Amino acid sequence: MQQYWGYTSFRPFQEEIIQAVVDQNDVLAVLPTGGGKSVCYQLPALLNPGYVVVVSPLIALMQDQVLQLQQRGIPAAAIHSGMTAGQQSEVLNDLADDEIKLLYLAPERLILPGFQEYFADHPPRFVAIDEAHCISQWGHDFRPAYRQLRFFRQQFPKLPIIAMTASATPKVLEDIKEQLGLCQPYEVKQTVVRPNLFYHIRETENKPHDLVRLFQHKRGSSILYCRSRKSCEETASYLRQHGLDAHYYHAGLSRSERERVQEIWTNSSQKIMCATNAFGMGIDKPDIDIVAHYGIPDRLESYYQEAGRAGRGGQKAHAVLLYNNQDISRLLSFSEQLFPSETFIRKVYQAVGDYLQIPLGTGMGSSQPLDVADLCHKFDLEKTSTYHAVRILEREGWWQWNQDIHSRTMVRFTTDRASLQYLERTHKALATVALGLLRLYGSIFNFLTPIRIFELARVLEIDAGLVENGLNQLSALGFIEYQPAQSGSAVHWLHDRVAAAHLNLNTEHMEELRQANRNRLAEMLDFVRNETTCRNQLLAAYFGFEIPELCGSCDVCKQTKTDLSPALKAQILQTIRTEQKISSQALCAKFTSVDQGEIINYIRVLCDEQLCSINLSGTIFST
How confident is the model at residue 322 (pLDDT cuts 50, 70, 90)? Predict the structure, then answer.
C-alpha cells in the first residue's frame, strides 16, 4: 500500500476485504462512493503471480484506472471496443507472457469469439466485478451483458469472485449472489450514512434565484446535476451572469472539449460544473463542498451515488436538491417512456432493421453503426421511447447495443530514445511535443497510453491544435503509434432478423420490470416529499441498514428542531398584509437574519392556516 499508493493506513473495511481476497474467498462488498473500492482488488493482484480480470461498465472509467495504475508502475491494460483486433491480440499476448497484472474488460467482451476460450487456457487468479449491481434486473443501470459473467463460476468453480458496488438494496444484493453463484462470500456493507454530508431538499417556485443564493454563500468546488443538456448550458450561463464561475459538461460535447472543461474544474477549488449524470463517475476530487440537483433523479440509488461525490475529503459538505411541481410531472412522464408499449417496441425493431438494411432471415453476428437520433428523424419516432425500446430489445436478447464505444486518444512510442535526440536537432517543435509526452506519461514507451491533449497543451503552453498537428506528424514519421479519439454506437445482432409480428417478447417479465421501476420512482418521490423523518434514516432503511440516530443537520432535522416563533410568525404575516402581495424572495429579503428555509416554512404554515396564499410563480397574497 505504501510502496504503490503512498498510504500508510487503510480506509474502513479495505484491509478486511483484501485479506478475504488473499484467502481465496468470494467477496460481496458495498462501499460508498469514495470508499476506496478499487484498491481492494488492485492491491491483492500484486501479491501473487498471474493476473486479475476486472470487469467495468464504462470504457472511460477503465482507461482512467489503467492510466493511474501505469503511472504508479503497475502493469495494467484494457480491452474494449475502441481497439483494433491486432491491439487486442497484443494485450492478450502480453498477458500470456506475464507482463500484465490487471486486465480491464467490459462485460460485452465475454460473448465475443475467442475470449472464453482464452480464459480457459489462461485462467486469472480471481475476477473483480465493479458496479456489480448492473447484473441485477431489479437494480439501477441493469446491463444484460453482465449476465455473461456467470461463465467464470461455471468454467472455474473455485475461482474467487469479488463483486463490488456503491449502492444496492437487499433484494439486489441477493440477486447479485444468485446470478454470480457466489459461494458463502465474505460480505461487507459499509453504512450509507456519511456523518459529514448533510442533505437538504427544498421545494421552490424560483429555482434559478435559490440556486444563485446557494452558490453565493458557498465558495467551494461544486457539481450541479441537471436533467438535460440544454438545462446544463442554460443554467451555467445564468450562473455566470450572476458573477459565478460555472462551466457545463454533457455527452453532446466533443471528447476534447469534455476533457478541457473537466481539467479546468478539477484543478480549481471554486468552480461549479453544471452536468448531466454522465459526469462524476471515477472522479476522485476531495474538495467538493456541494453537490446540487436541479431537479429530481428517477431513483434513490442514483441520487445517493451522485450526492455522495461531495465531501470525499472528509470536510463538511452539502447535498442540495431543488424541485417544483413541474419537475414531478416531467419525471412521471419520463418514467412511463422507459417502458414503451409492445406495439411500439415492434415498430422500433422494424425501423432498426430497415435503417440498417438487414434483410429478413439474415444479420446474426453482424455489427452496424446505429445513430438513434438519425433513426428517429428518418422514421418519425419519439426519441426517448425509441432509446428505451432499443434497450429493451437488448435485454430481451435480440441484439447487443454498445453505446459506449468512445475511445480516448492513445499514443505509444515506436522508436528508441536515441532517435529522439535526432528529432531535437531536426524538428524542434515536434521534439517539444514528444518530450512533453514523456514527462507526463512515463509508461508511454511500454504501453499504448491514453493521453489528454488539453493537459499536454497546457503543460507545453501551446494551442491544442498545434499538439494534434504534432501528434499527426510524429505518427507519419514513425516515431509514435497514434490513435485519435473516436465515438459512436453500434448494434451487434444476436439473431437473424425476423418479421416484427413474429418477434418473441416476454411481456409478463416486461410488466414486472415496469412495476419495479414505478416502485423505485415512488420511493424517490417519498424521499423528496418527506417532512417528518431524518434523511439519513430514510436512506439507511432503503438500503437495508440499521436505522441510525437522527443526523441533526438535514433539512428535516433542522425543521423539527426549530419551534415556530409566534413573534416572527406575526411579523411575517403583518408584512404580507401590508404589501397585499409580495414575491417569496422579496419577503425573504426583508428578514435577512433568518434562514430562507425557515421563512418558507412559516409561509407554508400561514397558507395551511388560510392566512395567506401563494401562486405557482411564488407570489404571496394576503387573504
Answer: very high
